[in-house]
């Protein structure tokens, strides 16, 4: 079955790291409610949701995706590009050890899980403000023994590659091309979100279901034309922290 690791919103979410958005007031209580509805939706879609212990002293701790890359054979702990996020990793590794052999990312490069876009047996890794070329190469070294390839992708206009691109299955990608170099994705059929819905490009695809942020009707219509069942979640407060719907969980086969 599919399992999702999650962690509740920190009381200090308003102090989150920001790279591309101006800081705005965040209603933390509303963010909690948004996150709980997200978890409830995953449960309704058949996932086992396991909530990690809260880390209220770490503002970005709800965004667990950035802390690890999980495949069937191994879990690779990331090395977040923001130093403030390093303390999040250990507890995620401890939790994942229930299902996977857990390894540390080699070298000294940085890697955020939000930059790691999987398309079947290939991984596309965003080279961003948070993920370095050395970090991407180290992930490639960790995954190569299991037959996975890693291709770097330059990201210039947003926090992570997965902010701007999501794999929909069947060789299809949902993208917002102004934010990254789409050249490495040339082998895929690319579907552009509407120009005024850039933040709709991050979706969580679970088979033929797609969890999407509310407020992007053009993107929703596009996904439904492509045969996906869409499920909207409110995301107003978490979006102020540069989050996407994939950020709040690590999903894997347990």
Please tell me about this protein's structure:
The protein is α/β, with parallel strands linked by helices. It has a single domain, classed as L-arginine/glycine Amidinotransferase, Chain A (5-stranded Propeller), CATH 3.75.10. Helix content is 21%, strand content 26%. It contains six helices and 15 strands. The protein has helices spanning 28-44, 89-96, 133-143, 161-164, 217-225, 236-239, and strands at 2-7, 48-52, 68-70, 75-77, 102-104, 116-119, 122-127, 149-154, 165-169, 172-175, 189-192, 204-206, 209-213, 229-233, 250-253. Strands 2-1-15 form a three-stranded mixed beta sheet, with helices on both faces. Strand 7 (122-127), helix 3 (133-143) and strand 8 (149-154) form a beta-alpha-beta unit. It starts with a strand and ends with a strand. The model has no long low-confidence stretch (mean pLDDT 97).
